[in-house]
Every structure is written in structure tokens, then in C-alpha cells.
From TrEMBL:
Its cofactor is Zn(2+). The keyword Iron does not apply. Residues 9-119 form the Phosphomannose isomerase type I catalytic domain. This is Putative mannose-6-phosphate isomerase YvyI. Pfam families: PMI_typeI_cat (PF20511). It comes from Stieleria varia. Zn(2+) binds at H111, E129, H187.
Amino acid sequence: MPTPTQNVLRFHPLFKQTIWGGRRLGTSLNKPIGTASDYAESWEIVDHGVDQSVVSHGQLAGASLSDLAQSHAAWLLGTRNGGPNDRSPGLAFPLLLKYLDCNRVLSVQVHPDDDYGATMPVPDKGKTEAWYIVASLPDSLVYAGLKPGVDRQALADAIQAGETESVLHSFHPQPGDCIFIPAGTVHALGAGLLVAEIQQSSDTTFRLFDWNRMGTDGKPRPLHIRESLDVSDYSSGPVSATRSDRARDGWQDLVRCDKFLLQSLETGSQSLGGDDQFHILTVPRGNATLTCGDETHVILTGESILLPAASPECELCVERDSTVLQMQLNTP
């Protein structure tokens, strides 16, 4: 199979509907959602089991991200991440990008790390993630980490009493805040938040508290108490937000960890690509223009693209009052 020549990949969004969703994926992020009022998530770039991003334009239209990862690993992922050989059975794209519209508070959850995920009945990666706050209502909260001094027994006692909220660190986030949630961090997104989330491509989630509410069948949703207590990190304590300087030119680090690098561009122009690494771009507010050789791509609010590792160096220009997020593996 010949190596693709396409330098920019756009995908059809994959929508998820739940009772906690709303309509802001359409009204604020211009997603082509339908007429219902419960669109909770737009999975922008994903390669995880049956959940697959499908290329929407160009030479590769109709190809799934899994197809590309397995048939053109070096072209998509880079020789450091995918190896020099095409045909890499089982290889998957390692990151997942989504937008979430939280119309009600989500359950309190915790994700395991890679080692624990490998021991599960259906093995999966662990899940480290980060949230970028796109919009926040005046009373919106994020729950991120445990209060100081909360150990396993204190968390177990609070769960048993139905008072998990009392041991959670919470705060009101502002648009532009970034909250880093390493594996093992107890967390929840509150009502009224519109969020961009970057994470390991994984579905390993343990629910430890659901606000004492009933599911759609009139029964409490299943909890994973033992697993949650086993994987929670009791040493890291409260999590705080970081944010970029909207008056500063160039890339600014929001998260730099062993799973990914998340950066923002708030003003000016910056080059990227041509470095044997893939790059994910998304625009949570405003617009941007990407110039790649003789190609020009306008990226509108809510749109996301992927530059394969084989793409040449490109120039990204962000418009006034706009933000671009850039994600890649944090490879030495």
C-alpha cells in the first residue's frame, strides 16, 4: 500500500448522547448535532475499539484512524512512536480528544494507571487526562483531588456515608483554565461546564460516587468502590488550575507529563510539524489558519485536525481573541 501524501487530516465528529448532555456542542462549538437536547460529548479524534474517527476529506476520506495506525504507522505516528515498519497489527493511536457539554454534575470517578489497567479482565491503558475549560456558568464547580489529609479510610468512610463530596477539593473554574488529572486523581466535572479533554486512549473508569441519584431505570448506577479505593492517589492532594497568558506570543505549556504534551497558542504565529511527531490541533474559541506548503486550512471554532508525523513543517496563525490547543506525545 503506497504511503499517503495527505498532510492534514479532518474527521467526522463522533457524538455521544446521555441525560447529562445539552446543546452547546452545536450552539457554542458549531457541531452538526441533531435536534435532540442531550448531546453530551463530541469525540474529535479517537481510536479505541469500535469508537473510531473516520477521515472526512481528501485522499484518505473514509479511512478510520485504526486503519491508518496499523497500515501506515511510521507515517502517522513517527518512527520513534510507531516504528519504521508499516503493517503494525494491534497498534493504536495513543491519544483521545473530545469536547464535553456538562448539563448536570457528572459522577465522581477515578482512573487507574497503566500497570493496573494491564491487570484488568479486559486489559486497557490507564487514563491520565487534562481539561481545558471552554465555558463555565457562575456556579459551576470542578472536583479535582482529595482534601489534605484524606487517606484511604477517610475516603471509604465518606463513600459509605454517602458524603463523598465532603472530602473532595472543589473550585469554580474560569474559561481558559486547564486542570491536569493524572491517573489516580479523584475527580468530577460539575454542571454548566463546556470542556475540551485530552486523555490517553482508554476507557478505564471507576465510579465511586453518583450523588445518591437514580439511573434511568430507577435504580442506582453501579459503583466500583473497591477498585476506586485501590487506585486512588492519597498523596497528591488538591489539584489547582493553570492558564496561559493571552497576551504572550508562541506556544505555552499547559501540561507536560509522561503521557502527552498540551500547549496553547493565544496570539501570533508559530511553526509546527516536520519533526517526526503527530500533532493534534483544536480551536475552542475563535479561528486559526494553518499553512502547509501550498495548502491553506482555516480551522474554525470547535474544529479539530491531525497532522501526521510525516507532515512537513507548517505555519499556524491564530486570529485575535482566539485560542489553539496543540497536543502530542511527550517524546524525548
